[in-house]
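Support request from a user on the community tier.

User writes: "When I paste my C-alpha cells into the form, the page sometimes reloads and wipes my input. The last time it worked, I copied everything first. Here is what I submitted, just in case something in the input itself triggers the reload:"
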C-alpha cells in the first residue's frame, strides 16, 4: 500500500478565545496531518508577564492546547518562545534593560521545555515594524541569545522579523553563525519565496501558502516549508490564511508538480530542521 502523503503547516496559532479545535478539525478535514503550534504573545492568552517565570503560564497553556489538538488526529509539534513585539510593551512598562532581561529569561524558560522534549524549537526574532535604534539593538541581542540557547539545546529557532530580503537574511545568518548556531536551524517564518538565496545563506524559509508564492518557491527548488500563519484571532477571523490552506494548496498543486516534491516539503524538510519524525 502506498503511504499517504503527510501535510504539515509549519506555523499555526491556536487560541481558546478563537476557533481553536474547530480550526484543527478544518485542517484535518482538508487533509492536514501535522502542524507546528507556535506560542502566542502572553496578552493574546489573557496573561501579563512581569518576570521570566510567568512565561510558564503561556507555555503550559500552549501545550495543553497541543494535547487537545492531538485528540483530533493530528500530530502537533510545539515551538515556544518570546514574540519580538513584546520588547515594545515591556520596555514601556519596565524600561528597556528590564524588558531585555525578562525576554531573555523567557527564552531560557522555553529552552527548558525543549530540553524536556516538550517542544521542538524556540520562537524569537525582531520587530516587524519601525522602532528606535535602542530597541532594535536590544532585539538583535535577544535574538542572538535565542540562537545561543538553540545551539546548546540542539533545536531550531523560528523567527518573526521584518519583511525579509536577501540582505536581511544574510544579516540574520551572520548573527546565527557568530552565536555558534548553524543557519540550517534558523527558520524564517513568513518568508518570501527566496528559496535559492536562503539555501545559499543557510536559512530555512517557511513560505506563506499563497498560490503565487508556492509556485515561485517551487520554481527555485524544494528547500522550504509551508505555513498559513493562522492567527486564530476572533477579531480577525481567517487571518493570515485559513487552517485548510496548506493541505488545499498542496493537493491543488500535485497534478502540476508531482507528489514527490511535497514529500520533501512536508516530511524530509521538517525532519531535518526540527529533528523529528513525520510519521505516515
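"...and here is what came back when it finally went through:"
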Amino acid at each position: 500500500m502506498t503511504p499517504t502523503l503527510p501535510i504539515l503547516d509549519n506555523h499555526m496559532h491556536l487560541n481558546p478565545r478563537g476557533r481553536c479545535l474547530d480550526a484543527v478539525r478544518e485542517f484535518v478535514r482538508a487533509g492536514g496531518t501535522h502542524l507546528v503550534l507556535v506560542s502566542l504573545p502572553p496578552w493574546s492568552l489573557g496573561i501579563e508577564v512581569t518576570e521570566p517565570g510567568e512565561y510558564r503560564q503561556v507555555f503550559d497553556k500552549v501545550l495543553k492546547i497541543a494535547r487537545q489538538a492531538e485528540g483530533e488526529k493530528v500530530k502537533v509539534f510545539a515551538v515556544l518562545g518570546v514574540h519580538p513585539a513584546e520588547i515594545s510593551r515591556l520596555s514601556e512598562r519596565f524600561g528597556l534593560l528590564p524588558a531585555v532581561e525578562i525576554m531573555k529569561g523567557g527564552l531560557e524558560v522555553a529552552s527548558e521545555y525543549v530540553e524536556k522534549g516538550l517542544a521542538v524549537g524556540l520562537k524569537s526574532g525582531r520587530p516587524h515594524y519601525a522602532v528606535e535604534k535602542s530597541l532594535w539593538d536590544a532585539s538583535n541581542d535577544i535574538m542572538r541569545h535565542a540562537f545561543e540557547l538553540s545551539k546548546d539545546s540542539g533545536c531550531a529557532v523560528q523567527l518573526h522579523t521584518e519583511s525579509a530580503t536577501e540582505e536581511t537574511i544574510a544579516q540574520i545568518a551572520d548573527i546565527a553563525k557568530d552565536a555558534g548556531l548553524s543557519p540550517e536551524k534558523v527558520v524564517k517564518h513568513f518568508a518570501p519565496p527566496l528559496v535559492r538565496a536562503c539555501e545559499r545563506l543557510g536559512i530555512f524559509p517557511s513560505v506563506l501558502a499563497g498560490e503565487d508564492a508556492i509556485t515561485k518557491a517551487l520554481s527555485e527548488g524544494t528547500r522550504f516549508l509551508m505555513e498559513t500563519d493562522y492567527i486564530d484571532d476572533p477579531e480577525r477571523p481567517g487571518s493570515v490564511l485559513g487552517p485548510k490552506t496548506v493541505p488545499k494548496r498542496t493537493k491543488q498543486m500535485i497534478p502540476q508538480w508531482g507528489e514527490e516534491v511535497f514529500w520533501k516539503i512536508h516530511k524530509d524538510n521538517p525532519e531535518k530542521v526540527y529533528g523529528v519524525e513525520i510519521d505516515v
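Agent notes: The reload is a front-end session timeout and is unrelated to the input. The first strand starts at residue 8 and ends at 12. The chain has one domain: 8-274. Escalated to web team.
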